[in-house]
Amino acid sequence: MGQSALFGLNAFIFIFVILLAPLGANAAPYAAMVMDARTGEVLHARNADTRLHPASLTKMMTLYIAFQAIQRGEIGLDTEVTITKEAAAEPPSKLGLRTGQKIRFRYLLRAAAVKSANDAATAIGIAISGSEEAFATRMNRTAAAMGMTNTTFRNAHGLTRDGHLSTARDMTILGRHVIYDFPQYYNLFSRRSADAGIAKVNHTNRRWLDSYPGGDGVKTGYTRAAGFNLVASAQRGQERVIATVFGGSSTAARNARVTELMDMGFSRAPAQASVRKPTPPGAMVSEAPQVGNSGGKVVRVSGLVTRSLRPIARPATAAPTMSDDTLLLAAIDSNVIDAIVAEALGATAPAAAPAAPAVTPQARPAETVIMAAAPPALAEQTIPEVVTRISTSGGRHWGVNVGRYNTRHDAERVLLRVALNEMSTLDGSLRRVVQRSGGFDANFVGLTREGADLACRRLQARGTTCFMIGADS
């Protein structure tokens, strides 16, 4: 090779290296963690406590707080949210919201979870807290309560901003809370597509979900500063593993790495392990205007907790209108419910067992079935007793059990209280008290399998013990 040709080759190599150097220098740092979701045990960690850009993994916290706000009555799934200019101005990925537009809160959740829409995430934060800054404050307080010690949020969407940082460990912790604290909403993160009101949106990580057996979430994230991030979860039998990757070089490379980590997690996780759910964070309350309520003083959650919230009491005769999948929080004041239950049962339960009467009253039937759709006492002062067998026609041969009690009176009281608090969830079901050797079972029957499953998930979200049963249970 001639000297001039050799010089030309060396010059080309030098220029090529110079051009590539910035790419290597700007590559996002790598970090990873693998956790047994059932126990919280760390199965693998690399740079897990290095503070990095989380990108749209941030939206897991935005959605977590949204679920929390729904549960506490701050906002409803069908609340009409007015889009602010701040939300409408967010860059892609976005749903395409316009300033002044009204859209149901449920559609914002779907857009943020499935499409990772930045405008929807900002709209969620402003709808709940009134401003982006106030919502970021709540995000940080909630993160601190979860033990996310190296995370600082500056916005609801995760676009790069100074100081907006997290770690692989903290995002894994957050993913675990999403799974266990709000199981009734977790399916949002595995939907391949969803109706977001103004558009149909597709999942940002369909390829990995479709390729990995048992994969069901959770959230992708990408910015130039962050690289390709992913918090993923999969369940196989009784085992559930969460894997987090920061700094992937591409979608394909990130997904391949997460697959390797998942396989490692399932190989290291024990086949049998007791589920130790994380402790949900609380919330501090402060007075502020509340979306979706009219009149009266209301409270808004802004950070960590001292007491739970209850919506403003409505008149006892007001029947709330709910959609089929809206979580109906206590719409009637507790004292009103107590009065209704007491009137329906004839009297409140005695503080102490009374002396046995001289004449034994006529025995009641072993099974008492009462329609649950209409609150009793609003129409009659006595409860009709009807002994019947629930028909299994039409697939409505499922039900839910809400506990076993020492007396029939206690079981009936619980059924009435739950029916009043959950009129939308249990609409069309029947209340049935069944005497067992260990006490009196309080059941709602006459539901479809899907209806019973949904009812149980919503009741459990409200802190009510519940499990599905067959009509003959």
What does this structure look like?
- With 473 residues, the protein is an alpha+beta fold.
- 33% of the residues lie in helices and 19% in strands.
- It has 12 helices and 16 strands.
- The protein has a 5-stranded antiparallel sheet with strand order 2-1-9-8-7, sandwiched between helices.
- 42% of the residues are buried.
List the helices and strands and how they pair.
Layout (H helix, E strand, L loop, with lengths): L2 H24 L4 E6 L4 E6 L12 H13 L8 E3 L2 H4 L13 E3 H11 L2 H12 L2 H15 L21 H14 L11 E3 L4 E3 L3 H6 L3 E9 L3 E10 L2 E10 L2 H18 L16 E3 L11 E3 L32 H12 L21 E5 L26 E8 L2 H14 L8 E7 L2 E9 L1 H13 L5 E4 L3
Helix pairs in contact: 2-5, 4-5, 5-6, 10-11
Helix-strand sequence? HEEHEHEHHHHEEHEEEHEEHEEHEEHE
Largest sheet: 5 strands, antiparallel
Strand order of the largest sheet: 2-1-9-8-7
Number of helices: 12
Instruction: Please state the structural category.
Output: alpha+beta
Instruction: Estimate the helix proportion, in percent.
Output: 25-40%
Shape: globular
Strand content: 15-25%
Model regions low in confidence, pLDDT < 50 over at least 5 residues: 13-25, 283-333, 347-362, 364-394
